[in-house]
Backbone:
């Protein structure tokens, strides 16, 4: 692999010889770190966050919060999580903010979160298109004493944003989540982050959660961020493609707040992987004599890791069906469309039929010149890099991976 630190594209070719084993590092969990930054800002000004994520999104959120901006314009760039969490934070604290981002971010829906915040009495207006950024937010001190009802959305991030500001309400707040909440594991992660800092959360019948008022806590506390399982999912699927190579992910544990951990642990037997914890590390290898048949995989609780699975199974020529990919169309790119276009370059037919996505791999082939677009999307870039183990390829705009996994290409270089 070439040096990619400032490259607009990189070349990847199959290694001349693969290592029998390799150790790789993944950053701290972006999802956990971003939640802790919001909770620190609202309730724990002296909180020490250890092993912080190196992701660009986390650096951006930390910079915005540390700037202490309460008036004027705040640019969240392409960071969807930052946009949603700050919408709730600014709406429920003294502020007068215009919240905006890149053209793609301003295509990502925010209406359902805004509708729930309006139930709380917040003052939010759309500056351009109804339901989308930019937002004009004039913050209030929320009183609560109400129950926020679902506003049509099944996106867990909207409810997580609301949950983290709920303890600001002087009379407490109840939130009712939908019966079929998408990516519910991320909602659970939010509650566990709050409870780990002793912020009370009371589970009640009928999907109700009660958040009592919580005073700002000046006690100095510290909390350590787990390693990122979404980033680690790239290395998880790689031994399927390279069955003679054992991958060890440093400081990654199966016991995790992250829902991706449980999902991938349960999936391992189905796809013939062996997971072995060794001290503070996790080793991943292909089971001997295991084979894969036709699969159906439901990613409704873990959509971000689906791209790695789809590309890996394409290269193994395993015909599959997938459900739970609905949210991929409103991520950093339209990810299902991106995969349709890019996988077609190697003869893979990925299409939607009768409420599921179907992977048809029978025409897999590798043309002499292969160049892949990344659509300004970190997860698209990482997933497509699997193809470089089978044929020489070029990947455009490789540094989009910095959004979640700076150092990814350096770690991938250990395979050479």
Residues:
């Amino acid at each position: 692999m070439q040096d990619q630190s400032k490259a607009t594209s990189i070349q990847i070719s199959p290694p001349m010889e693969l290592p029998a084993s390799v150790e790789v590092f993944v950053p701290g969990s972006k999802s956990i770190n971003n939640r802790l930054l919001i909770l620190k800002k609202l309730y724990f000004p002296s909180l020490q966050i250890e092993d912080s994520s190196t992701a660009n999104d986390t650096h951006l959120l930390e910079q915005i919060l540390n700037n202490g901006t309460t008036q004027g314009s705040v640019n969240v760039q392409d960071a969807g999580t930052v946009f949603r969490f700050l919408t709730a934070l600014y709406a429920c604290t003294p502020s007068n903010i215009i919240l905006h981002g890149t053209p793609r971010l301003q295509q990502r829906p925010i209406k359902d979160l805004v509708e729930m915040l309006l139930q709380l009495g917040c003052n939010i207006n759309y500056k351009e298109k109804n339901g989308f950024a930019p937002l004009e937010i004039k913050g209030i001190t929320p009183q609560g004493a109400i129950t926020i009802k679902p506003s049509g959305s099944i996106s867990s991030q909207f409810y997580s944003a609301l949950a983290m500001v709920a303890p600001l309400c002087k009379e407490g707040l109840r939130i009712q989540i939908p019966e079929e909440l998408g990516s519910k594991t991320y909602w659970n992660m939010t509650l566990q982050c709050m409870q780990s800092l002793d912020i009370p959360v009371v589970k009640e019948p009928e999907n109700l959660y009660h958040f009592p008022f919580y005073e700002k806590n000046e006690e100095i506390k510290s909390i350590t961020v787990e390693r990122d399982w979404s980033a680690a999912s790239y290395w998880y699927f790689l031994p399927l493609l390279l069955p003679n190579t054992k991958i060890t992910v440093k400081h990654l544990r199966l016991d995790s707040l992250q829902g991706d951990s449980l999902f991938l642990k349960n999936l391992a037997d189905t796809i013939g992987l062996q997971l072995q914890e060794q001290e503070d590390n996790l080793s991943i290898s292909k089971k001997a004599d295991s084979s894969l048949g036709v699969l159906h995989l439901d990613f409704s609780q873990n959509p971000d890791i689906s791209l790695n699975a789809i590309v890996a199974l394409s290269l193994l020529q395993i015909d599959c069906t997938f459900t739970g990919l609905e949210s991929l169309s409103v991520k950093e790119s339209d990810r299902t469309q991106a995969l349709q276009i890019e996988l077609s370059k190697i003869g893979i037919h990925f299409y939607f039929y009768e409420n599921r996505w179907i992977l048809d791999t029978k025409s897999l082939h590798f043309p002499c010149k292969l160049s892949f677009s990344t659509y300004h999307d970190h997860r698209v870039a990482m997933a497509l890099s699997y193809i470089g183990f089978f044929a020489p390829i070029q990947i455009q705009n490789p540094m989009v991976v910095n959004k979640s996994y700076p150092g990814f290409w350096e770690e991938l270089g250990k395979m050479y």
